[in-house]
Prior knowledge:
This protein is an alpha/beta fold. It has helices at 2-11, 70-74, 90-101, 121-134, 187-190, 225-239, 269-274, 290-295, 328-335, 340-344, 355-364; strands spanning 20-25, 28-32, 38-42, 46-48, 52-54, 67-68, 82-86, 105-109, 137-139, 143-148, 154-160, 163-169, 171-174, 178-180, 194-195, 198-199, 212-214, 254-256, 261-266, 279-285, 301-307, 313-320.
Amino acid sequence: MSRGIEYLFKKNKIEVIAGIAKILAPGKIEVLSENGEKSLVEASNIIIATGARANSLPFAPIDGEKIISYRHALVPEKLPAKMAVIGSGAIGSEFAFFYKSMGVEVTLIEYLDNIVPLEDDEISAQLSRSFRKAGIKVMVSTQVTAADTSGEGVVLSLKSKKGEETLAVDVVLSAVGVIANIENLGLEECGVITERGKIKIDENYQTSCKGIYAIGDVIATPALAHVASAEGICCVERIAGIDAKPVNYLNIPACTYTTPEIASVGMTERAVKEKGINYKVGKFPFTASGKATAAGDRDGFVKLIIDAQTDEILGAHLIGGNVTEMLSGIVVARNLGAKAKDIINSVHPHPTMSEAIMEAAAAAHGEVIHI
C-alpha cells in the first residue's frame, strides 16, 4: 500500500520531504530531518492532515506489549492465548473477530448497552449473536475499572450489572477511540483555534488562520479514510478557485469488516424515533436469499428506514456476507434523491445479494412476495 502511494506521488510530481514539521507562520514550515537538520519550506497554502492515534484509558496506558493499540495488533510478534478487547466500535470488533479467527480466546468488552454502538440496534444485536456463535465472549454494559500489568499478563477489573469480577488475559487491545495529532504543530503560535481536541474550520476547511487548512481526523467530522479523501479533494479544489460541491456529511457510508460485515448510511431507527419522524421499516433476511443460501452464508439482513410521507430513504443498514460491496448504490440513490419506490421499480439481477435491497424496499411498502 505504501509503495503504491509513493508511486502516485512520483507520478503526479509531488515532492515528499521526510521529517517532523512545525508551522512557524502562515506560509512557512520548519522541517526537522532524521539527522537533526532543519529546513524551511514555504507555500501559499498549508493543509494539516496529520491524522489521529489510538486513545487509551487513564489507568491502562498503551505500552505496546501487554496493552496494545490497533497498530501493534497488526504486527504481533506472537499470538496470545487470551485477549481482551476494550471497546466494540469498528476497530475493536474487527480485531476481535480477526484474532478469534486465528485461534485466540477473545473477550470483547463494551461500556454501552450494545456492541458497535453507532450502528442500528438490530445490526448490533445480529453481530452480537454472530460473535457469540463464533465463540467470542461479548460483555456489554461493562466498565473496565483497573488494569493490573504487574504479572505475566493483564488482570482487568470489571464492573457490570451482575457485579464486579476480574478477567485474566495475556494481552489487552485498547480500542476506545482516537486522539487527533495536533500537538507541537505550531497551531497556538499561528492563532489556529481548536475545540475539544479538534481544529475548527470554515466551510472551505480553512482554519482561523488565513492560508492554513485542515482535513481528516484532526477536524470534527467522521474519522474515516473516505471522508478525509473527499475533504481533501474539496479543500484543494476550493483553494484552486473551483466551486466544489460540499461534502454531504448526512450521506457518509460506514463499513465494518467483521464476519458478517456491516454497511450503513443515514439515520438509525433510534435516531429517526428521537426526531419524531413518521417512518416505515422494510427488512429482508438473507435466509430468504438464493445467493446467500448457495454461498452458505445466510446470517444477516437488509434494513431500510423510509420516510412515511416522502418515501425518502432515511437510512440503510446491512449485515451479512460482502454487504460492504452493496452499499454504494444506496449512497448514490440517496444523493440523487431516489425514493423507495424507485428502488422497487428498478429490476435487480437474480440471484444476487444486492436484490435484498429491492426486497427490503418492497417490504416497507407491503409489496414483498419472496418472504
